Input
Amino acid sequence: MSSKEEASSTGVVFGGVSTDETSSCNYKRQETIIAVQDSDLNLSSSDLKNLMLLDEALEGDHQATAKLLIQRVPSRLGENKHFMKYFKPKTIAIGPLHHDHPNLQEAEKLKLKLAAYFIKEHRLEKEILYSKIKMEMENLKKCYDPSALGKYRVDDEKLAWMFFLDGLAVLQAIYISHGPQPDAKKETLNKLNIKNDLLTYVYIDMLLLENQLPYHVLELLTSSSNDHRKSFEESIKNFIDYNVMTPTEVMKEQQQRKQQQQEEIGEPAHLLEFLHRRLIGTNEGKRSPCQSCWFDRFFRYTDRIRSHHSHTFRNVKELREAGIWLRPSETSCLKDISFSRVCCVGKLRLPAIAVDDSTGPKFMNLIAFEMCPDFNNDFAVTSYICFLDSLIDEAEDVKALRDAGILHNALGSDEEVAKLFNKMNTDLVPSPTSYYQVKTQIQNHCQNKWIKYAAQAYHSHFTSPWTFLAFLGAIAALVLSALQTYYTIHPK
Output
């Protein structure tokens, strides 16, 4: 019998489906059966294991975790040589991910000192607190990516002591500078023989993605003292507010509204998520004021034909040349970026930002947090950095932002700040919807020929106060000449 006849008699055509199936194929998975003889497959056990990976690939997607996991920085950021220094603690290890690093062992004594002082000053029962941690170990371990725990995954005793000691040290470090008596900071540091610069480095390390404790640990350690619990919670909030990189004063009503909405969301996974929530806030979605003057209606009419163009990013220098002024926003929310236009003048409002040595680590760890696969978010911090980088090309742009009260430079030269934001934007992908309306409004403003002519005339003739005064003098001379002519022709 020929191979074709044998195949037809068995109902099999290798590499395809049977002729019977082809004629009755209805594309239903359970009814499309491909019969294959095992003897012709020649698959090893290793091959079968690899094929089973396809069956298991999508199973994890249906088992979403209830909490955000503490995990390592995604490799595309963590392995970038420009960013490595932003993700590794330099002074103190908090939690298990960097606990065994040899360069951080000196900080173990510092943690013991801070924890002991916290217990003593607040008259807490250390046995009760430690017991609470041990009883919650199963839930606390679930706050970490299992692969990140390493050997501590099966060592509850060491992990419980780590949570207990590190949690108390974190609380005391926060309490020193942000407690109800911040004036006593110097006295406390003297008692503990800790220098202020060391404490500053500790604060930076406390906001690294790989250096986080479950927030529930801090709650357990403050739950036994009803008298001090509110002051502990307030101290943590003060610490987060202090580390906000956009330190604009926010009205009490807005702060209370944010606090209520955060309480509705629930407790954060860790301090870094707390900072992320504080920076993102809940921008009320303020729209740019709609002008009704005939100038703006005319400009909007000419803008309609360009409603589907791509956005060309412009730096601050080009925006100013196009007649766009820069102003600080009223809130510290990173999403509070808006654009408005009155006649030929545009106003771009941005949240004020303070730039210092901690800006790079904070922003990069927030960006790494947004990249974590279990964090469903709109990449607000990533999009903000990309937007800000599009405005900053060189030191001159930084100076313009400083002059507008938007950027406060405590890092060094303006050139250093420009390099920092240009470097942070390397290989970042912003959300395509973030600031889309603002970008479109800026693009339309810059491409409108009438506005362009007016802006060019302004920069050509009115950039100096003397040219402006000369223009006013010329106008006054024309008016006076016209009046003189009128009264000459029509004397009283």
Remarks:
- The chain has a mean pLDDT of 81.
- The two ends are 128 Å apart (CA to CA).
- The chain is about 55% helix and 5% strand.
- The first helix runs from residue 3 to 10.
